[in-house]
Amino acid sequence: MKPNTIAIIGTQWGDEGKGKVVHFLSRNADYIVRYQGGNNAGHTVVFNGKEHILHLVPSGILENKKCVISNGVVIDPEALYQEVMFLRSQGIKINKENLFISEQAHIILPYHKYLDAIKEKTQRIGTTQKGIGPCYADKYARVGIRVCDYLEEDTFRSLVEKNIEEKYPLISEFISKKALLKQIFEQHKKYSKFIKQFVTNTTNLLIKVINENKKVIFESAQGTLLDVEFGSYPYVTSSHPTVGGISIGTGLPPSYISKVIGVAKAYTTRVGEGPFPTEIKSKLQDILREQGKEYGATTGRPRRCGWFDSIVVKHAIKINGIKELVLTKLDCLRNIHPLKICVAYKYKNKIYYDFPTSRKLQWLVKPIYKTFPGFSEDINSISNYQSLPKNVKNYIEAIEHFCGVKIKMISLGRDRNETIFK
Ligand code: IMP
Questions:
Q1: Whose C-alpha lies nearest to ligand 1, atom 5?
Q2: Which domain holds residue 213?
Q3: Which residue from 22, 34, 40, 136 has its CB within 8 A of the most atoms of ligand 1, so it is best to mutate?
Q4: What is the distance in angstroms between the CA of the first residue and the CA of the last residue of the chain?
Q5: In 3D, which of 6, 1, 4, 13 has the Cα closest to residue 309?
Q6: Mean pLDDT by 10-residue block, N- to C-terminus, for the chain (422 residues)?
Q7: 286 plus 417 within the same structural domain
Q8: How much distance in Å is there from the Cα of 222 to the middle of ligand 1?
Q9: Are residues 121 and 145 in the same domain?
Q10: Of 115, 178, 363, 398, whose Cβ has the fewest other Cβ atoms within 10 Å?
């Protein structure tokens, strides 16, 4: 029996609108799984006229689905507590029957956030400052603290004391050692009890429910170009938003991932530093930012905006084995004339059809564009593909042509109802 699972993957630099897509698809799902990243993510979902921004808890929680935060995620206990309390205050039910947290996930502690700030001074990645990179660095340096360690008071204390010896000299400008330890242990007292109720072996849980033919959606955070292995390194996050991240981030064999859907925004954005070949360098960037409300859901930072880049999306299609795309935020391109799609890069008379690995080339390549007439019609309330204006259909079909895969679903607005199928 083929596992009843779908992976929802971002094909650009994150913020493609995955939250809405997962929320839409979660109506027919049983479990929604976050498998990487942490509260650096911000999934904005408009539900019942209200805007919800989720950072750690999968957006399926809004549909009262069972949600899993698996081993590949890094968890800031304070951020998790605040998010759960906020969602509960909005009338959303969260308890040990619908939220499951892996005992193997790594914990973000206050020193990770200070280390993030210190690193940023010299490295200038433009991180979210949530301690994500330093927490994953500890995991791979084999000094990380997992949820199961966090729940054993003596193990936790001895690991923290050891880590502080090594890390405190690097962060002494922010806080005294005594105050830092006090902060860590006070938080631990409060949040370890809170987290405990949700903790389980999520690998066993997922294997069991998939074998029972339950429908499971894997919700990636960030996007392929932010993958630490396949993104625009070093301007990336520290985890694997790509489909390969699911296996390691959940403990499920690759054969348990049946379908991969890529989510692409109808233009491109990125937050933070790093190369961005199709970034618009005129006032049009500000217009697009306003039309698309392109401000970071986690940090509020203005997102950099640019034209749709088929080289970037093709890279994601290849790495993730994407067979179909969801196109989002098409409505935000209204009144922009003409529209452009990048179909290749050029540097010193050489044409590139693949996203370059060289960091120098990533900065230096110039996009080659095809130009398309824009549209001025209000398309939000259109409910079938055939009724879309001709120029909109041409633009969609051009994206399909240059990316080489079909677009199956198109999002024309923030509300879940503003979605059509092709
Ligand atoms: P970090 O994940 O906080 O370490 O940040 C590394 C890079 O990933 C920075 O450029 C961030 O702006 C970017 N980033 C992290 N999370 C997101 C996200 O959810 N959407 C878009 N960019 C993100």
A1: 127
A2: 5-101+200-260
A3: 40
A4: 28
A5: 13
A6: 96 94 92 97 78 88 94 98 94 95 98 96 93 98 98 98 96 96 97 98 98 97 98 98 98 98 98 97 97 91 97 98 97 97 98 97 98 96 94 98 97 88 90
A7: yes
A8: 7
A9: yes
A10: 178
Pocket of ligand 1 (CB under 6 A): 13-15, 40-42, 125-128, 130, 132-133, 221-222, 226, 235, 237-238, 271-272
- For ligand 1, mutation pick of 8, 39, 127, 129 (most atoms within 8 Å of CB): 127
Amino acid residing at 261: I
pLDDT at position 44 is 79
Torsion of CA 154, 157, 158, 164, to 10 degrees: 180
Q: What is the CATH number of the domain that holds 307?
A: 3.90.170.10
Q: Are 103 and 152 in contact (CB under 8 A)?
A: no
Residues 388 and 284 in one domain: yes
Clarify whether residues 345 and 387 are in a common domain.
yes
Q: How many CB atoms lie within 10 A of CB 151?
A: 17
Question: Could you tell me if 162 and 250 lie in one domain?
Answer: no
SS3 assignment, position 301? coil
Domain of 234, CATH number, reads 3.40.440.10
Instruction: Say yes or no: 125 and 171 in one domain.
Output: yes
Which residue in 173, 114, 176, 184 sits closest to 145, CA to CA?
A: 184
Length of the chain: 422
Question: Cα–Cα distances in Å, from 382 out to 284, 333, 335, 411, 418?
Answer: 26, 15, 17, 10, 8
- Rounded to the nearest angstrom, the distance between the alpha carbon of 386 and the centre of ligand 1 is 37
Ligand 1 atom with least separation from CA of 226:
8
Ligand 1 atom nearest to CA at 273: 10
Closest-CA residue to 42 (of 277, 225, 219, 231): 219
Q: For the purposes of burial, counting CB atoms within 10 Å of the CB of 397, is it exposed (0-12), middle (13-18) or buried (19 or more)?
A: middle
The catalytic site residues sit at 15, 43
The H-assigned helical ranges of 103-176 are 110-123, 132-140, 147-150, 153-171
Per DSSP, the residues of 64-84 read T-EEEE-TTBEE-HHHHHHHH
CA of 37 relative to ligand 1 center, distance in Å: 9
